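new request in #modeling-help
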Amino acid sequence: MIEAYILHLLILICIYAILAMSLNLITGYAGMLNLGHAAFFAIGAYTSTLLVMAGFPFWFAFLAAAGMAALFGVLLSIPALRLRGDFLAIATLGFGEIIRSILLNWTELTRGPLGIPGIPKPELFGFEFGALHWYFVLAFAVTVATYFILRKILAGNFGIVLKAIRESEPVSESLGKNVKLVKIQAFALGACFAGLAGSLFAHYITFIDPSSFTLAETILILLMVTLGGMSSLKGSIAGAIILILLPEPLRFIGLPSAMVGQLRQIIYAGLLLALILKRPKGLFGEKWFKGIVSEG
Amino acid sequence: MMAVEVKGVSKHFGGVKALDNVSFSLRQGKTLGLVGGNGSGKTTLLNVITKMVVSNKGEVWFNDERIDTMPAYKIARLGVGRIFQTGGIFNNMTVLENLLVAANAEREEAEAVLREVDLHEKIDDKAATLSGGQMRLLEFGRVMIRNDELILLDEPFAGVSEANTKKIERVVRKLQKQGKTMILIEHDSRRIKRLCDKIIELEKGKIIREAKA
């Protein structure tokens, strides 16, 4: 029993670590505040679910989830990238809400608020990841792969260009960088991995409905990124671990369940305040310089 | 061959005429000094050439190709480089990364360029820890590693220590020897005479004087 509980937490940590790393790519590395990340998570979850329920193999649905989320990443970024900073954040927030209300109202496809129950456990080449520990192995493998792929991409030229754009778009353009294209790529890549996380989530929980993909979900992921530190993949993983585990003790102190949820929100808010006051750059974040140091 | 041709360029911000029917041309390998008081339109002219500002009228040509219709990054890719008055450096990136943004180069190549601007010992330092003059030198390193043909310099000597001023002047001369075309905004008339082949003076967005240096 306790084993199952621990494995459950570990699987959630994996899923959220992928989400946090993918959001970190968009918000931390590329500097675009994205408040619609849960939408990519949702698109991945629904795409994978609907395809598997329609008889497609899991590996296909899993990759399609990534592809569909990436496609929506591109679709969102084309209009949204005319905006910057707070305005971009509002546009992405709107995008998140649009996707959620489509899922809620397109009942022929998604069953709307009733959600989709009975999602099968994934099966890869005849092997079923039904047992909890096998599911953890799958989720862990995807998390590790995500970490190494993103690390490889971000350590290369693409990562350097992202950092440059975050600091100054005009200077990046003056060095021959197609800023718009790079931002679209960043959105697509981040969305793609969020889609993978969505697929893992759907086939693990075996039930999805639009209420799993609200703004609060995005805020939680964003908090993981902020806590771990902007532009640090390790930080995002640490953020996911801390924020998944932190509210767990509440389950054991015998509070009425109605209070637990609200207490969680208080803990998150308190943590965020402490972070701003004590360690604004996050646990693993880099020191941030602003302005010019005087002539010496 | 004319490297740069500016034909009848005008730019107004609201009612203010920042550039008023400006035309000039510059031969390849020559250096143009741009002088004039504050707000005379010098920086706006550089902004129009690099398309950081879109002009209201006129054309800009570079190596017999019209560039004012292109996006900024494409102009940069043709070999138009720029040293900014301020904020041209990515503070939170290392000196090496600042060069690698400009060109997809190997570390060795970057190190060789940094040696020329005397920053090779700082290669892995954060750019924010450099002095103002060193930052300018790093920007020169960037146009060198990109091998830009046309280099636009916006007051590269302003607020720079004497030692670094000498280094910058040496780098400018070296680039001139390599046949680079340059447009230099500068207030020191003696330095203009030393470095430039031609001078244009702007006042309220108009060319009021064009002369050999």
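bot summary: Chain B has a mean pLDDT of 90.
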